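Dear Dr. H.,

I hope your travels went smoothly. While you were away I took the liberty of generating a structure for the chain from your last submission, since the lab meeting agenda had it listed for discussion. I wanted you to have the full record in hand beforehand rather than looking at slides cold. The sequence, exactly as received, is reproduced here:
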Amino acid sequence: MTRTKWLVAISLVAVAAMVGLVVTYASQVSMLYLKTDEVFARLEKSATTAHKGPESLVGTYLRIHGHLKAKSARRYQGRLDYEFFIQGQSGRALKVRYQGILPDTFRDHAELVIEGKLVQPDLFQAYSVFAKCPTKYKEEKEQKKQTS
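The corresponding predicted structure, in token form, is as follows:
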């Protein structure tokens, strides 16, 4: 083979390898972002098939948005293991287990975004918990209004 054919062949192999890596990595990183009520709606649809099949969220990595149910947070003594409930606008709540340090703004009714895996229809295993700080943003909006 000539030198040009070798370069073309090597280039094609390199491009194919890069495309394969991007496709593989993107499928592992991508997550559904759902509100808590949307999770319950999708769970109800998949309940007819015992939460199996393509419609099911069980076993899926998700990012869920909701609010911390008041007085639901519980810490296991001597460990950084927590259980709490995240609820949607409808008031339905999903049990969450988390191991790690919680954010300072983690308080009753706090707006949360959690990342993890829905291990059962009624249990979410979180590996990241983000709590939004509404008072900080309200103060910034008020300052902008006053300066306008």
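Two observations you may find useful: The domain at 31-136 is CATH 2.40.50.140 (OB fold (Dihydrolipoamide Acetyltransferase, E2P)). The longest helix spans residues 3-29.

With kind regards,
E. W.
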